[in-house]
Fold each of these.
Amino acid sequence: AAAQGSRPADSGPDLDEALFASIADAVADAARTAASGPAAGPAALGSGTVDALRRAVAQCWNIGPLSTEAQAVTVTVGFRLARDATPEGDVRMIDYTGGSEAAARQAFEAARRAILRCGATGFPLPADSYDAWREVEMTFNPESMRIR
């Protein structure tokens, strides 16, 4: 087992794949939420769009500095996107599992920072499908990133 210290997490290919897999669940939740909306229909997000959003968020999601307890928390967040695919308004915590309220706040802040940082210039989403992706709900699960 690797020592857990203040060292940054390894960002090699295995970790990247695990990170992408972890975020895939979050984006799949977002796509399901969008597809269940009233105007989604055929404009619902396709797998290529979901993958692009997943990769965009994955580039900024950093759980390395979180406490050991916060690294065990799964947090679900919700946010709204403007027509230019940038976050609009507040990112809010919807739910969490696996830790204390303080640990959940840490995990939420890591997810919020990832969304705001990587969304600052707009996510790679098709403008003609705005109704399918304007309201997003994502579940971030740091546990699924672990490779052992």
Amino acid sequence: MPLFSIRYSPALHFLFLQILNINFTFYYHLQQQSGIPALL
């Protein structure tokens, strides 16, 4: 992952955090519905 670009770009950093949040929510609901532990 290009961490260097996230450091000097607050907008990109915010977008990265939003994507992480969406992915975490998706995997959490997927784990709750299927009963299979999500690999994080």
Amino acid sequence: MSSEKVVYPPEFLAADRGPVLIGISILFLVIDTAIVALRFWSVRLIRKSATSVTLDDAVLLGAWLFNIGLCIVGFLVVQHGGSGRRAAWVLQTDPSKMIWWYKLVLATEWLCSPAIALPKISVLLLYLRIFTDKASRIISHALIYILIAYVVAYSIATGLQCIPLSYQWDPTIPGGRCFNVGLFWKSLSFPNIITDVIILVLPLPMIFKLQLSNGQKVGILAVFLSASIGLIASCIRMASFFSVRLLADPTWDSVELIGWSIAEPGLYLFAACAVQLRPLFSKFARNVGLKTQYGSGSRKAQSGGGSRVGNIRLGSMPSKHGMDNDASSTTNVIVTRDIAVTYEDGDSDRDSSNEWTTHHSHHVK
């Protein structure tokens, strides 16, 4: 019984989505590098030593390296693996590209889980410097251990998806076998979404307990909720994995799948960095002469060395009978109070702590 050779239309074989994946790789290569640079610039503004490096700094640098690795794979899988072209075209023109495609997809899987988990761990380490209540600290520690276990388990499972591993690109190996690779790829998003929700909800009770104005609370809340961009990306990635027939036309379909595997970790990295950009924004606002107004000075000032309110240390403010009385003898003097929400790295040195600052000013006639 003879089998007929399948003839594909020329326009079918000529289709090429590779430039889309190249564009995604370039975009996140630039975004990842820029946001990490801005984040380190921002924290440098509020640290006593410009060379000091905290644990979450090191974790974030590791996340950046894994994200850059994913972007590089995005280039290579198009150039050497035929990603973006129809599998039929690849097999007709250069079948060896399919071997490269499988190997580079394997590299994507190994890079993706730590690239996703490390930005989250960085945020949780930041939480541990902010939270003082026992429950929040326990949850933060537990999530860090869960994320580490997730990376280890997923990396091991990636290496065991086919036995031997080379059976994935060489099905002629006798006795080789693979588990359901498509289901394995889809499963990556579920734990991400669960941990995302917990990380987003965790700081909310602390923020609502702060003795600050509603405007200030909204500002701090917006900083923390910027991390929701990672949750949105994870949901979209999961939807794309379930909407595409995985491995039906592997090189063609991989543009969307690898593209989201680059975008999702990149957005997690963006969110982790955005949480700590407030000092940089404040510096920019001061340089251009902007101030955030919060009324006419009716808020009662806190004197002394600061107090614990809502589990965050409020920076000291000038007493009302000190600065205000001195200023009352001069016309057109602007009295400015900084309300600084700070969190410390284990000591009382304000220069080594991180902070969010809003300006409260009024004219004294």
Amino acid sequence: MVLEELKIFYSWQSDLPGNSTRYLIQESIQFVVDAMKDVVEIDADRDTKGAFGSPDITQTIFSKIDESDIFIADVSIINKYYSMNVDGSKSKEIKTTPNPNVLIELGYAAKFLGWENIICVINTEYGEIEELPFDIRQRRLTPFSLSRDKRQKIKQELSSIIASTVMNVLNVGKRPKSGVSNHILGTYNCEHKQVQDILYPFAVTTSPNYINLLALMKQKSESLIKKISLIKLEAYIEEKPKHENNELPTNLTEDSDANSASFNALKLNIPNIDLFSVKESPCYVDEKKQSETRVKVRTYLNSELIEDFFNLGNLKKSVSPFPNNSTKYIGTECEKQKNDLICELESSLLELELLKMYIKTFDNCFYVPLAIHNISSVLDEDISIYITVDETSSDIVSPSGQLISDDIKGLEGIIYDTGFIKQLFLMLENSDIHYSEDITYSIEETLCQTQIFNFNIYGNSGPKYSIEDYSRELSKYIAKPIVENGNEFEFTIKSLKANEKSWLGPVILLKPKKDIINLNYAIKSNRSDGTINGVLYSDFNVKNT
């Protein structure tokens, strides 16, 4: 088995006795190298060790720090001096400092390695932590004293801290070397704002996206019910006809100048049809519709409607005999407003019912939203991520027009129009993570919408969406394998800045066969060294998704 390689750079000083500082720390490092040789191959380096000829010492040391994973500095105090007054005289205040070369190397390491990969050791026999410069003493320091503890105990404590730092580097991932990019692939943790190298699939039917969508739709219906309930109206009262028993209007007699055809029609009790007349009729919600609405409210909202909920007063509607003319409502503003709200509620409840039916499409399906984090200090471009699904652990669900519950087959165009697909599978974007490009946009969809618009202006009643629109929408948010019925996916990202995070794109939809599923991945890019690969695991026994 090939072991992971890890480099430790030790910045030491020769101003203090070597036996109480330099050699003691060096022995502790070597103890870790030997103790962990079966776990990791550690290269313990220092100053110009291994450099031949007459190298530039400063450049050699900085280059070695660039290539290291852990930096250990001996910040034991070596100098004491008096600060100077304005007039040039010595003040009574005594200042202390570690070795200046160590401080230079420490500052360089802090910039390129980060303080989490730095261990500062101090022998307090030569000065306490409080005597160190402010920006060093506030860091995590490892003090020791041979006058207080035995040498062997100190070595054990130093070795333990070094070994813990080594394990942390191995768990988190080695820092990319200078000029080379490195990326973490996995699940985005919203709480900690981190991309973690694990899998966290979401069951579609219980996912946060679905729960939030359902809550918003319920909230909309509940808000409409509240508004409707506040508008108090009487039930419709039927008006008596103006002329009963076929009595003629007093202003219309056989001797009048009225059109004889109209007179004869009235006389014979035959309605006089006027092609330009507009018929008015009472507007009300029939009992069947009332019953259906009450059942839906009870089922989906766990609520009951008040008795006079559907009362519309004396609202009337008029329908023109000409085609394509909308219905007009005649009544008070409250009557018309309540009617509009009831119509909106019926539509909202119907959409809620449709969502409940559509979500059955994804029974036993889990989606995997993958994210990537550029953990290096360089811009990376032309990033390709290759994902291979272990088919023994999970089936791949591909987006197609056939991916729909049997109960609502034939309604694909309506599902497309509701926007359910986007709301179920589009991941959260914020200041910390985003999509590298707008996956909601499709040039093919734009062309189709243009064709629909052009068709509508020549007389079509409205946009008619089809199974093709539905299939295309699914493909925007659910990833397709590279080859049909295959198990490999490819995602591309044009560029990622240093420390930038991005969603890969559409989610991978799976039907697990086992409790543990895994995905193999490899990342290639302009600035990476071609060695970024690994396996992502998810254990359904551990995480309940």
